[in-house]
Each structure stands twice: as structure tokens, then as C-alpha cells.
Prior knowledge:
The complex is a heterodimer of chains A (321) and B (235). Chain A is mainly alpha-helical.
Amino acid sequence: MSPGLILLENFLQALAAGLMVGCLYGLMCTGLGMIFGVMRVINFAQGDLMMLGMYAAWYLFTGFGLLAVLGPYAGPIVGAIMAGPILFVAGWFIHRFLVSRVTGVKVASTEGAGHYAQLILTLGVALILQNGGLILFGSEPRSVRTPLSSSAWEIGPLIDNDFVSVFLNQGRAVGAVVSIAVTVALFLFVSRSRLGKALRAAADNPEAAVYMGIDVDRAHRVAFAVGTGVTAIAGGLVAIYYPFQPYVGLEFVIVMYAGVVLGGLGSITGAFWGGMLIGLVQQLSTLILPVQLQNTAIFVVFLGVIFLRPQGLFGRNVERV
Amino acid sequence: MLEIRDLEAGYGGVMALAGVTLSVAAGEFVSVVGPNGAGKTTLFKTVSGTVAARAGSIRFEGQDLLAVPAHQRPHLGIAHVPEGRQVFPSLSVEENLQMGAFTEAGRRDWAANIEYIYRLFPILLERRRQLAGTLSGGQQQMVAIARGLASSPKLLLLDEPSMGLAPTVADQIFDAVVEIRRARNLTVVLVEQRAVEALESCDRGYVLETGRVVLSGGQNELLSDDRIRKAYLGM
């Protein structure tokens, strides 16, 4: 094979990996974007809620018989999807008993709009989840054992008979497909359904939403729970190819925020594309940079985009009045 | 229909309403006029529940309104068109109207209401897919009023619909309000700084100053009152 073809093959391989990882990051970011977009709350615990999603998927797979019933292929995927409703419930309660005390219409008119209390609260929840996770789950890294993560589909050879093949890790590929499906479902929910529109109205102007008869606190609870559930699904999908421990949330929460800000705050589709861009940059940067620098590459691109488009790639200038 | 008694409300240490008593009968058009800071907007917000009452009572069709959470009051038939329009900027015009129809009555009457609204404000039909945040001020005011109508209210609270609009646009909005009231036989309470127009189109009026009702009466009574003529009508 000529050096040119090797270069092409490496590029296509990194591109494919970037697209797949990007879909997963995109899904994570959509979950966070949902919470941030509707509530304007900085949720530091998002990464740790995702960690809970990973463990939920893992326990469902190993402990609750999904492996035995559905086998090693469908099992992990169903486990990841089921982590969604479980963390939806968790998110509902976290909002009901903790987050709602420092957010919502009542707080919006107070000095600083309650942001200090929100930051400390979600940071506290994050620390409790990390350390609680350590006590409950132990520090030993887990992974969802499935043949998916160690096998690949080959696309190609693309040129002649034996040149330039792209290998798709099956775990990532299936995860990417599920991510797209969940993102599309979420997008339809927010843009078409009555409840979804009410969430957007509550995000746009909480006071006016009250005048429409919308229960803004409840809208926030739905957004928080849905956002948590969606990120948990992403976590469960990542767990298929990525070993995790209770502190794994830290690695992802930064990526999620970068993605949400890149996409333009408050836009669900923007958050997805922001996550996608991060996945692509992360994987493509390995072509020219050492692997250890992939997160640096992300933030160089991040700063570049923010410098040129402070409102994010999909941020609207109409924004809130 | 609306009975307000000795209502007190405020923000922190500031008293915005210092014992307001006011009543509106079904089908009436009542104007509340007064200078900036008189408490007019606070009065509406207390009725809607976004500002808490400190004392006094509000009854709507005999029901104690202060016992009803703010977000349930629209479902009783109160539509509040807030000061400064407050449309949902990132929702389309039609989605804004759908949010107006969040109440059960609004959903039931959606087809008839939307037809009426688009006949009243044809420009909104033309722009129904446009984001409300990109409309002009007058058009946003139309959306705000239409959004209120879409809830099929019994009582329409209009807070300074002419604020920040060019005089001709403000006149259009006023005409629309009068037309709505006539066609739908709604009970309307209008808060306005343009006292002449407000008093000329209403049945009765109240004059609010520093959180108190200083004068009230029928349209003619108020328009011929010397204090009103001096202070608000510039005569």
C-alpha cells in the first residue's frame, strides 16, 4: 500500500470513530442541554448522574438477568436504554427534594437568581454521588462484557480488492445508532408535543409561562428528569466500550459542557452537534497529535469557536429578552 | 366578577399596594390609570399570583383567588397580557398562541379562537411560522393579546398594551381592544398610562397613586373631574 493510501485509511478510520463517538457525546450533551436550556441551572452532577446510568446498565446486564435472557448482544443495549427510565425517576426525585429548592419562579426574582446556591448544591450532589458510588460500587473499574466491544464491522475494501478498509467497533456503532434514535425522539418531543412546547415556553420566559397556566416548577422537573435519563442512556451506551469507575463522571462532564456551549446554549439540536464536533476533534486529533493531547485539541477548537462565535454554533441571537 | 379588598403587596421593604379596593362586574370594561410606580402592574401581578399579597383579599367569581396557585389561575378564566408583551421569543407565532391555549377552555375552543384571532390580526396569520422574537413591537403586542384570547378567558387583564409603540400602532392596538371587548363580550381591565384613550374607551375607571385608589367613578365623571383633567389629560 502506498503512503498516501495509508494516510487515507487512517483518516477514514479516525473519521468513522469520530462520528460514532460524536453521536454518543451528542446524546450526552442533549441531556445536559435540556436541563440547562430549560432551567438555566449549571448542573455539576450531570457527569455523575451519567455514571449512575453506567452502573444501572451494568447491574441490569449482569445482575438482573438481561445477559441471561437477551444474550450478550441485545442485553447491553437494552440495559443502556433501561437506564434511562431509572435515572429519569432519580432525576425527578433529585429535582423534587433538592434542586427545586434553589431554582424556579420564586428564586428567579431573588438576587443573583439563586445561582450561588445552585452551584454549591449540584457540586454537593456530585461529590455525594462520587463518594457514595465508591462505597456502593467499589473503586474497581467495571465494563459491560459483550462481544460487541471487541468486534468490528469492516467497510470496504474501498479501493480495488484489498486496499483501504474502515473498521467500525460494533459497540460504538450500535451505540451511535441508538444515540441518533434517542436524539430524534427527544427533538420531536420538544418541538412537536404540547408538553415540549410548554418546556420551551417556560425556558423562554418563566413569568409569562405562569400567565399561560403552565406549572413552571413541574416543567423544570420534567426537563431535569428527562435530561438526566437521556444522559444516563448515553452513559449506558458508553459503558459498552469504555471501562468505568465511580469517578468517571469527571471525564465526561467537561466534554458535555464544552459541547453544550459549542452548540449554543439552550438549543437541543445545537447540543447534539456540539457533542458531535467534540467527538470528531477528539478522534481526528489523534492523526497529528499524541493521544494524550486529545482533550487539549478539544479545548483549542472550543476556544476558537467561542472566539469567533460567542453565541455558539447554533445559538440564536434572538435569545431571551 | 373580580372583588379586590384592602389589598397590600410589595417587594422587599417597598410597599407597592397599600390597601387597594376595587371591583369589576361581569361584562365591564374598567380602566386603571395613574403615574409610574403607582402600583398598577403590581395590582395585576397580585391578581395573577406572580407577586404575593401581604394582606387583603381577591375574589374571582366568588372564589378566594389567593388560595389558588398562580399557575392554576389562568385555568379559572383569567388571562393576563403582561407589561412589555413578554412573548416567547424562540417560539413561533402559532406556538405562542398554542401556549395561550394551554387552558382546557382554550383547547376546547382552539379552532374558533384561532379563526377569530387571525381575522382580527391578519398579519399574525401571515407570520404564523415566524419566531415571535423577530417580530416588531406592535406585532409582538398583537401576539401577546392574541395569546390571552386563545385561553378563552372570562377576564382579560391588559397591562399597558400601548407601551413602547409608535402612536399610530398604539391606536391600532386600542381599536383592537375595543373591538375584542365588543365582539366577545369579555370583562376587561386595562392598565394604561395613556389616560385619555383608556378612560374614553372604558365604562368605569380607577385612579391609582402610590399604591392607593385616589379616585374612582364612571367614564364621564372621571373625564370631567378637574384633578384628572389637570394631572392626566393636560387640560
